[in-house]
Write a structure and sequence with these properties.
Length: 121
């Protein structure tokens, strides 16, 4: 799978697509001109790159997502844990909570999520 990372500007562009999909590429050009002050070629260049990464598709001029916003950020989070903590979720949680800590409410919500993921609910 292609690397699932986007810079700040790419993220703003992706939000435009996610917020308006499906949309015709001409409409995307207009939105990007208005929101990002981009020209046509910049819009198509960034769209092509994100299509190559498997995040969006442009078929017959219609632009839509391959991955929803939530799915994209879930994959990105998985890659971060894999790359930074050798895939260990407990190591990630230990590092995250070491300095910041978590509230009782957050701990309870995490327990519910773990139980649900483990099929206990």
């Amino acid at each position: 799978m292609a690397e699932m990372k986007m810079g700040v500007v790419e993220s703003r562009f992706a939000d435009i697509i996610w917020g308006n999909e499906p949309l015709h590429s001409r409409e995307l050009v207009k939105l990007c001109e208005k929101e990002l002050n981009w020209n046509r070629s910049t819009t198509y260049t960034v769209l092509r790159k994100l299509c190559q990464r498997g995040i969006f598709r442009n078929e017959d001029g219609m632009v839509s997502s391959v991955l929803s916003r939530d799915d994209f950020y879930a994959v990105q989070s998985e890659q971060f844990v894999d790359d930074t903590f050798e895939g260990s979720l407990p190591a990630f949680i230990a590092a995250f909570t070491q300095r910041k800590g978590i509230s009782k409410e957050e701990a309870a919500e995490i327990r519910r999520m773990i139980d649900a993921a483990a099929g206990k609910e």
